[in-house]
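Exam revision sheet. Question 4 asks you to relate a sequence to its structure. Input first:
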Amino acid sequence: MAARRYWFVLVLFGVLLALPLPLYRLPGTHCGGAADGICAVPVRAPGGILRPEVLSHPGWLAVYWAVALPLAVWLTARRYGRAGRLRRALPALSVMVLLGGATAALTVTHWHGFRSPSAVLGSAQLLIFNGATPLLVSAAALLLLAAAERSSWLLLFAFGYAALAYVLATYDAFHLLDLVHLPVDEFADRWGVRHCLALAVPAGLLLVAGVVAAVAGVALPLAVWLTARRYGRAGAGWPRCTDP
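Answer key, structure tokens:
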């Protein structure tokens, strides 16, 4: 089953997104009365909310992803190579390399995006390295992997994950929580976890989906084997529609 291969990729992306969460923490902030001055947070930015300059250790984060993304490519290729299905993973591996390379090139050359007010063209600036770039790389890889594996379940999950990744990359997490009427102060972040949520939620979804896929990849073949063994011992063969 395809799930016996791609569960590893889901868990891998989930782990890689979860490990650097401490680097996404910011000093806690709290907005009080008018005497505290103007208090505002960016709500939406097509070019990315998690800009490196607002993070406490942008250099460490850049180093982490510079190592983590090539590691993800290598581990995915190794997993599929051992399963004898490396060709199926090539589109996903290629887009990971291309997007990673484009991110590095645009960041080093200090590209400032297209000179256009279009939100669509503005979103191209997400390729400039920021805290959410890995979300887009993993989303694109999962979409291509789902198409190559011809897995409708993985494709459905990948589309949902890609939409969530884009929203979390361009909208403030606390603003999103406020939109769904959760008891969150949009302008206060006492624990400095505003940016952590943008990675923690997708990481959690990937880990849960990976575990579900792993269990399904083992349980279904096991059920088929047990059924075949049961009817084989009985000498009755496989059940037919006319059997009582």
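Marking note for examiners. The radius of gyration is 22 Å.
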